[in-house]
């Protein structure tokens, strides 16, 4: 079974101004002359982590990673202004041009898979391959499953902590209730709701719950960026033209792009039906269903399949 490559320090770190308001933190790691790959992190609002560099053979890949608008070390922190899917797609293109890369591999998990697909639909000629984990198509049914009713039947104990900040009379629409509070301007209310939102995701992300992950999700800075930006994207339906738009576009735009889908069978955050639907829309895609995994990219079977895919694409 494959494991992550050893810890790796960047060979290049810089700031990229993408608008008068937003500036991105960017890293490059691995081999400066290697095969280029761009890493789209999850969330939206998750930010990059040193572990993310380790899915790629450092001798063969030039790994490009960046904190998306409002996340991590990009500034301003947790900002919702000028923060849409299509602005992030534009940021990736601006970064590709800045680095003088003609075509690159694209790697993303969870929301990163959504952004990877949106980027590939908009710029198919720039994409050598897609490696997607925990496929998320940002359809209303997927949002309702996790934030309204569905996942709560599997994690009722964690769900109680999620619903606690919301009055009973507003629980018919948790997303709207949370969005109002996360954008209220009341620092104490925003912080409490951000922690509840973020720890719900942390508590459900692994097949075997991980207290360390839950604690990380409860951290004030991380919870604020994750909860505010996720609620912003979800209330706006990913800024897509209609529900299901991304899947419909994938049928026509991705036919010539090699694609590997890595999906935990027991992924509660992004259930397997989305990966299945994408596979049906793009029959050439290879779907790796991991029988003993949930959503997290760090689970052993997920790591094995992702590293196998990146090793295979390294010379492509």
Task: Give an overview of the whole structure.
The chain is 40% helix and 16% strand. The chain is an alpha/beta fold and 316 residues long. The chain folds into two domains: 12-139 and 239-313, Rossmann fold; 141-238, no CATH class. β1 and β2 (23-30) form a beta hairpin. The mean pLDDT is 97.
Key terms for this structure?
316 residues, alpha/beta, Rossmann fold, 2 domains, eight-stranded mixed β-sheet, 11 helices, 40% helix, globular
Main β-sheet, spatial strand arrangement: 1-2-4-3-5-6-7-8
Which second-level CATH architecture of the largest domain applies?
3-Layer(aba) Sandwich
**Radius of gyration over C-alpha positions, nearest whole angstrom:** 18 Å
- Sheet with the most strands, sense and barrel status: 8 strands, mixed
Q: Would you state the CATH class of the largest domain?
A: Alpha Beta
How many domains, in number, for the residues?
A: 2
Runs in which pLDDT lies below 50 for 5 or more consecutive residues are none
Order of SSEs = EEEEHEHEHHHHHHHEHEH
Classify the helix fraction into a percent range: 25-40%
Give the class from helix and strand content and strand pairing. Answer: alpha/beta
Oligomeric state of this protein:
single chain
Helix count?
11
Mean pLDDT: 97
| Inertia-based shape | globular
Report the strand count: 8
At the fourth level of CATH, the homologous superfamily of the largest domain is Alpha/Beta hydrolase fold, catalytic domain
> What name is given to the CATH topology of the largest domain?
Rossmann fold
Q: In percent, how much strand structure appears in the residues?
A: 15-25%
What gap, in angstroms, lies between the N and C termini?
23 Å
């Amino acid at each position: 079974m494959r494991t992550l490559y050893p810890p790796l320090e960047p060979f290049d770190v810089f700031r990229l101004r993408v608008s008068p308001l937003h500036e991105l933190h960017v890293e490059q790691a691995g081999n400066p002359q290697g095969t280029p790959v761009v890493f789209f992190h999850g969330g939206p609002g998750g930010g990059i982590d040193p572990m993310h560099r380790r899915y790629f053979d450092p001798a063969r890949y030039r790994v490009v990673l960046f904190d998306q608008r409002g996340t991590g070390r990009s500034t301003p922190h947790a900002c919702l202004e000028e923060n849409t899917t299509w602005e992030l797609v534009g940021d990736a293109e601006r970064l590709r041009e800045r680095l003088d890369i003609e075509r690159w591999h694209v790697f993303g998990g969870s929301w990163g898979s959504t952004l990877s697909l949106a980027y590939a639909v908009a710029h198919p000629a720039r994409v050598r391959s897609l490696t997607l984990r925990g496929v998320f198509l940002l359809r209303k049914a997927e949002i309702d499953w996790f934030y309204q009713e569905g996942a709560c039947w599997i994690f009722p104990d964690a769900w109680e902590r999620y619903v606690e900040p919301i009055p009973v009379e507003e629980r018919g629409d948790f997303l709207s209730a949370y969005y109002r509070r996360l954008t209220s301007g009341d620092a104490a209310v925003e912080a409490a709701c951000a922690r509840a939102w973020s720890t719900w995701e942390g508590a459900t992300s692994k097949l075997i719950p991980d207290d360390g992950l839950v604690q990380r999700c409860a951290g004030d800075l991380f919870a604020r960026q994750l909860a505010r930006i996720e609620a912003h994207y979800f209330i706006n339906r990913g800024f897509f033209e209609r529900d299901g738009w991304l899947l419909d576009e994938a049928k026509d735009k991705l036919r010539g792009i090699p694609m590997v889908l890595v999906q935990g069978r027991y992924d509660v955050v992004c259930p397997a039906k989305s990966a299945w639907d994408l596979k049906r829309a793009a029959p050439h895609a290879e779907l790796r269903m991991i029988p003993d995994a949930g959503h997290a990219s760090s689970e052993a079977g997920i790591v094995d399949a992702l590293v196998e895919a990146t090793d295979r694409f390294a010379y492509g």
